[in-house]
Amino acid sequence: MKILLPEPLTASAFAPFGEVIAVNAAQRHFSINGGNTERYHDLAELVPGPDGKLIVSLFRGQPRALPFAIEMLERHPLGSQAFMPLGDQPYLIVVAPPGPPPGPDDLRAFLAQPGAGVNYAPGTWHHPLLALNAVSDFLVIDRSGPGNNCDETAITPPVQLALA
Amino acid sequence: MKILLPEPLTASAFAPFGEVIAVNAAQRHFSINGGNTERYHDLAELVPGPDGKLIVSLFRGQPRALPFAIEMLERHPLGSQAFMPLGDQPYLIVVAPPGPPPGPDDLRAFLAQPGAGVNYAPGTWHHPLLALNAVSDFLVIDRSGPGNNCDETAITPPVQLALA
């Protein structure tokens, strides 16, 4: 089985898929609250899509065992979906760019550290949550609204996600 | 100076001011991702307001020293503002209901634990970030758009926020 190894998560590497939500990915920050607080401003393009609205939810994911077989990806064609980790563990991301259903050679993986979230642009293919090491909570901002907003595609043959 | 002591943060106690964003405040949750993940669904009413859009930012706050004098509150009349703590420290919330500028007797305080965020409804009077113990990061979902979306009011005389 083809082995897929993660890259470090950086704003530039992740740009084809959406945005990184992290202090060190901010293009603009400024002081507020009389100097008490630094605001790292407007870090992702949140897209509610046609007749949709943005909602906030919490996802609690069980940790995955590695190596892990990537057998499918999903996409949300109508709206964005942002994930922010709330705990102290890293997690994994597997994506392919918006467009036709991807094959095994189209996948890229990223290792995200605590404090770094991602926002998937509408249509970005991605694997469901890949928590590591412990049960992990994420804040999620995504779309509620009419229409089909979830497509799945099989990855054939599967690829093997590993850390090294 | 009048002393203001925090209550525990619960969804029902906080209801006049907005919503609590926490697993144990969810009215609805269900399993997704083939059973890997539990989704605690749609935890807050996010309001972009007239001609506005929702944006996501990170706030990095310096810890406050207690007791702390509450000398002002602010409100965002046009949109909601949600705060989710990303670290492992508790924090404090001081609020007054939407309506006329509050006086010292109108204030309520809440002690929020890690894993529990809040969403201020449009117009809810609130003190700027009150981190405790350590430099603390929060994910913030609020409004970007035209018009004045921040009013401040003085609390006269100030009240003293303390833990006990």
TrEMBL record, chains A, B:
<dbReference type="Pfam" id="PF04115">
    <property type="entry name" value="Ureidogly_lyase"/>
</dbReference>
<dbReference type="InterPro" id="IPR011051">
    <property type="entry name" value="RmlC_Cupin_sf"/>
</dbReference>
<keyword id="KW-0659">Purine metabolism</keyword>
<comment type="subunit">
    <text>Homodimer.</text>
</comment>
<keyword id="KW-0456">Lyase</keyword>
<dbReference type="GO" id="GO:0016829">
    <property type="term" value="F:lyase activity"/>
</dbReference>
<dbReference type="InterPro" id="IPR047233">
    <property type="entry name" value="UAH_cupin"/>
</dbReference>
<protein>
    <submittedName>
        <fullName>Ureidoglycolate lyase</fullName>
    </submittedName>
</protein>
<dbReference type="InterPro" id="IPR007247">
    <property type="entry name" value="Ureidogly_lyase"/>
</dbReference>
<dbReference type="InterPro" id="IPR024060">
    <property type="entry name" value="Ureidoglycolate_lyase_dom_sf"/>
</dbReference>
